[in-house]
Design goal:
Layout: H1 21-29, H2 33-59, E1 74-75, E2 94-102, E3 108-112, E4 120-126, E5 131-136, H3 137-140, E6 145-150, E7 161-163, E8 168-176, H4 183-192, E9 194-196, H5 213-226, H6 235-244, H7 257-275, E10 285-286, H8 299-308, E11 318-323, E12 337-342, E13 348-359, E14 365-366, E15 376-378, E16 392-397, E17 409-411, E18 418-427, H9 429-432, E19 442-445
Helix pairs in contact: 2-5, 2-6, 2-7, 2-8
Length: 446
């Protein structure tokens, strides 16, 4: 099997970039044999590598303190800010809570409070980053409930049993906070989300995506043994690559010089793809594909999302959209101002926001310090000034746009490239089905 990369224009926003089937297939067609196996195997394993890295980061407490065990929910005390560098493209709209879950010793119980009209979601990602479980406002209407999270080898007993396809996973809670004045009320809901189950500790370290490929694939092999895949796409290439070496363990010495060089090329091509995937925006924006967050055997798309937006939700829960940028690669570099003119409100039942990130050299996106301490702007931003016809102009730039536009200003970093992501939570059918399209972000003066 080969990867299915994209259906329309792919990948935006929290998951940043787009790929199209023609471009991806063309790139794979130029690779043959072991080079192509290495290309596909590296992409296939990347979500496991990224999830293991996130688990390591999020389980570490301060020095001399015990690490956080699995099945223990940790609540972030406030909204994400410039210090939030654990996970790429964080949002500024919701309080986060998270836990890595281990179902190897039995079920884990999840309790949701009555959240009323306040947006709440709990997503549980399997180790391949599929958002296999999502419960909250969309599914419960804000009502309280108790659920059992069960592993792949335990059959559900009733509708409150939720099955995770892998024995381990990552649970992410999002609770809407309507600004700093609303933090206390939002935290009350956040802290009422409960998780209970056998405490276990993750052991051993894993390579990162920057590691040489022997270590990378060896780590991936251990992770595959812990959390076997439920589909063959990508795994076949991984297994062929392993068996091509005389030791069957990815040691470079187990391959001939020609084989090792072919693997070098395949891995380099895969790394280049996830750092700068090809795209084809629609009207100046990339829109998420229908299988975002639930990838099936589309392992190439899943790999890109693991790097550019780990933890992405399915489109029914949230849509992440990213403008094409100055050069079609999603990045803005200009020193003047950009404007997003919204003639009509973004059709989202919960909320929408436009968030700005500085872009790092390895394709990650984080908040950047600015004079307003503003990292996102949207339908809940206080003091926005609308035009006489009710439309809204949002101004994006590195310098203060002056009294006339400051209320609608989203500050950019003083230097370097930056990106924008528009999130729409609980998108309405017009947005989901493509009848509503965002206008392009225009550069208005240099």
């Amino acid at each position: 099997m080969t990867a299915r990369i994209g259906r329309r224009a792919i990948l935006a926003g929290l998951c940043a970039s787009g790929m199209t089937a023609g471009r991806a297939a063309s790139g794979q067609g130029q690779r043959q044999g072991l080079e192509n196996d290495a290309f596909q195997a590296w992409l296939f394993a990347l979500p496991l590598i990224e999830m293991a890295a996130a688990r390591a980061r999020l389980s570490q407490r301060a020095p001399n303190s015990q690490d956080i065990p699995n099945n223990v929910l940790v609540h972030a005390p406030g909204l994400a800010g410039v210090q939030s560098r654990s996970i790429t493209t964080p949002n500024r709209d919701t309080l986060y809570s998270s836990a890595f879950v281990d179902l190897t010793r039995g079920p884990v119980t999840l309790g949701l409070p009555d959240s009323g009209a306040r947006y709440l979601s709990v997503a549980v990602l399997d180790m391949y980053t599929n958002a296999a479980i999502v419960v909250g406002t969309r599914t419960t209407g804000g009502r309280a409930g108790t659920y059992r999270l069960i592993g792949p080898h335990e059959g559900p007993r009733d509708g409150h049993d939720l099955t995770l396809p892998t024995p381990h996973g990552w649970l992410l809670v999002r609770v809407l906070a309507d600004g700093d004045d609303d933090l206390a009320a939002a935290q009350k809901v956040q802290k009422a989300v409960a998780l209970s189950g056998p405490m276990t500790w993750s052991t051993g370290s894993s390579a990162t995506r920057a590691a040489p490929w022997p270590q990378y694939f060896q780590s991936a092999l251990r992770l595959l043994q812990s959390d076997p895949p439920t589909y063959k796409a990508g795994y076949d290439a991984f297994d062929r690559l392993r068996r091509a070496g005389s030791g069957g363990n990815f040691e470079r010495a187990g391959y001939s010089a020609e084989q090792a060089q072919a693997i070098d090329r395949g891995v380099a091509g895969a790394l280049q793809l996830v750092q700068s995937p090809p795209g084809r925006p629609v009207g100046g924006w990339g829109y998420p594909p229908s299988n975002l967050g639930l990838y099936g055997d589309d392992f190439a798309l899943r790999a890109v999302v693991a790097v550019t937006g780990l933890g992405a939700l399915p489109v029914a829960e949230a849509m992440y959209m990213r403008p094409a940028g100055d050069d079609g690669n999603g990045l803005f570099r200009g020193d003047g101002f950009y404007r997003l003119h919204l003639a009509k409100p973004v059709p989202a039942r919960a909320f929408w926001s436009l968030t700005l990130y500085e872009a790092t050299a390895d394709g990650q996106f984080y908040f950047t310090p600015n004079a307003l301490g503003r990292y996102a702007i949207g339908d809940r931003t206080r003091g926005l000034v609308r035009n006489a016809d009710g439309s809204l102009d949002l101004w994006i730039g590195r310098s203060d746009p002056g009294d006339a536009h400051r209320a609608n200003w989203l500050p950019a970093p003083a230097r370097g490239p930056f990106s924008l992501t528009l999130r729409a939570y609980l998108p309405e059918p017009d947005l989901l089905e493509g009848r509503y399209r965002l206008p392009p972000v225009e550069q208005v003066r240099s």
